[in-house]
């Protein structure tokens, strides 16, 4: 009898410029057997994140992806075999399972998932995405009621949560996005106070009109042109929360930040980058807060799901082109198998 097989997606070549389907290879290989200290997991849901593009270009907070390696990615998975009693078969865990049907992972890195919310919620608003928004806004940005908060990529996974949380804190929320459909969604469904399309010819003027009292907190997911347009509008003692730089991930030339040092000094700005893992000891607290907000209706979970592992490259390419609203996921398998 032949060994059971699984599909996985590998990096076929180091990409140059915007991603294409030719940068990926769908491969078939035997399902691995766990050794001591390892757990075999069956991936159910895969998080599609813009950072995956950055990992292909060089080391970041993780090693660079090399040609022939499985594309890295956060997953919710089902335990198949483990030597730990607490991880019985069928237990749902969060892990870095990658773009593959089965993953062999270090047992100590697994996080069992509670029953609150759907699996889609556990990857999005109740997972790392929601925690990134929560800690980035509340612990790094520290906005106060009545202040103006601007968030870029506002219709995206993290930005959509940031904007909603800022509203619950009593802030005036201005979103920056890239399409009419996204702008309508932010206004009509998530109740942002104002929305600016970053494709406008004079982005700074559009932002100034949307922020007549200046900007107190800017939650930056994209860097580039949006960042340089927001900077002159920052109020004294304003805060720039640096969460990502999506504009540079897929080949766009970085915008000049020559004015940044002077503005930081004269307006006494604070610009701080962070990783959600900086707050890992507090994740349980953050999850409880987000779950309460979701259950109360003050927070809406927004996600779109592609079905089938083979669609992961398409899902990432479209995400980088701005095609998503909310959290982009790929369903690899169902709990029922």
Order of helices and strands: EEEHEEEEHHEHEHEHEHEHHEHEHE
CATH superfamily heading of the largest domain: Medium-chain alcohol dehydrogenases, catalytic domain
CATH class category label of the largest domain: Alpha Beta
User: Tell me, what's the shape?
Assistant: globular
Helical coverage, percent range: 25-40%
Any low-confidence stretches, pLDDT <50, length ≥5?
Answer: none
Average pLDDT figure = 92
In CATH terms, what is the fold-level topology of the largest domain? Quinone Oxidoreductase, Chain A, domain 1
> How many structural domains?
2
Give the CATH architecture of the largest domain: Alpha-Beta Complex
Total of DSSP H or I helical runs spanning 4+ residues: 11
Question: Mind explaining what this structure looks like?
Answer:
The structure is a single chain. The protein has about 325 residues and is an alpha/beta fold. It folds into two domains: about 5-125 and about 300-330, Medium-chain alcohol dehydrogenases, catalytic domain (Quinone Oxidoreductase, Chain A, domain 1, Alpha-Beta Complex), CATH 3.90.180.10; about 130-275, Rossmann fold (3-Layer(aba) Sandwich), CATH 3.40.50. Helix content is about 30%, strand content about 25%. The protein has helices at about 50-55, 120-125, 130-140, 155-170, 180-190, 205-210, 225-230, 245-250, 260-265, 285-295, 310-320; strands spanning about 5-10, 25-30, 40-45, 75-80, 90-95, 100-105, 110, 150, 170-175, 195, 215-220, 235-240, 270-275, 305, 325-330. The longest helix has 14 residues, at about 130-140.
